[in-house]
Amino acid sequence: KSGDVGSDVLKVQKALKNLGYYHDWPSGKFRDNLKKSVIKFQKDNNIKVTGTVNKSLYNLILKKYEEKLGKDQNQ
Q1: CA distance 75 to 48
Q2: Straight-line distance from the first to the last Cα atom of the chain, in angstroms, rounded to the nearest whole number
Q3: Cα separation values, 21 from 43, 45, 48, 74, Å
Q4: CA neighbor of 34 nearest in space, from 16, 8, 55, 57
Q5: From the CB of residue 55, how many other CB atoms can be counted at a distance below 10 Å?
Q6: CB 42 within 8 A of CB 49
Q7: Which residues pair with 29 in a beta bridge?
Q8: For residue 51, is it left (φ>0), alpha (ψ between -120 and 50) or beta?
Q9: In three state form, how does the secondary structure of 43-70 look?
């Protein structure tokens, strides 16, 4: 959620950046720019819009990121 700092936030930023949702430099700090990216991801995936990342959303973001990485490597 907003104000959080850490490696898990950095992972979410990097994953959302790769997926085209996050457009800033990954810093590991959860700020408004990341919140907006999370909201857009939630809307695009028909998930209740909260602007925060819980465990299941975290897992989904990383799953989609890993799937995209796999597709990118296979092309």
Answers
A1: 33
A2: 35
A3: 11, 12, 17, 22
A4: 16
A5: 7
A6: yes
A7: 5
A8: left
A9: HHCCCCCCCCCCHHHHHHHHHHHHHHHH
More confident residue, 5 or 2: 5
Chain length of the chain: 75
CA distance 6 to 16: 16
Would you call 72 helix, strand, or coil by DSSP?
helix
Question: In this predicted model, what pLDDT tens digit does every residue of 11-37 receive, in sequence order?
Answer: 999 999 999 999 999 999 999 999 999
Q: What's the CA gap between 21 and 12, in Å, rounded?
A: 10
pTM for the model stands at 0.92
Q: How far is CA 19 from the centre of its chain?
A: 8
Q: What is the amino acid identity at position 38?
A: V
d(CA 55, CA 74): 29
